[in-house]
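user: Here is a favour to ask of a fellow structure person. I have my own habits and do not want them to colour yours. Could you put it straight underneath, so I can go through it closely?

assistant:
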Amino acid sequence: MSGFLEARPRVGYYYSGKSKNKILSDQLRQYIVKDYMSPPVIVKEDMSIYDAICTIFLEDTGTLFITNDNNDFIGVCSRKDLLRASMIGEDIHTMPVGVNMSRMPNLTFLEEHELVIYAADQMIEKEIDSIPIVRKKENNKYQVVGRISKTTIAKLFVSLFKE
């Protein structure tokens, strides 16, 4: 059951040659983001900064995913972006969140079939808290269908440990 031994009929048991790291690596390759993603928090690009700040706190999330009127994924707005916008001195009740977001193509995103371990690697490399999970649309744009966060990945790893 641990993967160190294999069995063959009329031969018996024998050492598989796999190390602990190889077995762990093989196990982690079976987890894809589609199975572990959570619902995204999506807002329109014309929403005010004030409303975006309220949404972040009401939804208890760290990142908002921004879409246009066609539901095309166009940007991301984090807590830091909203804090920066509120400190500028402009009226946050009228300024749209689309002015302050990080835009495509400078965004990190994953498709549904990609590995959770790759998502974790991207979060570490890019120093971000969550990644949008997207589905490609017919017009070569993307639609946000989920998100995966550091918390989601930590919960997965803890559940693997408990098994």
The first strand starts at residue 5 and ends at 8. The chain has a mean pLDDT of 84.
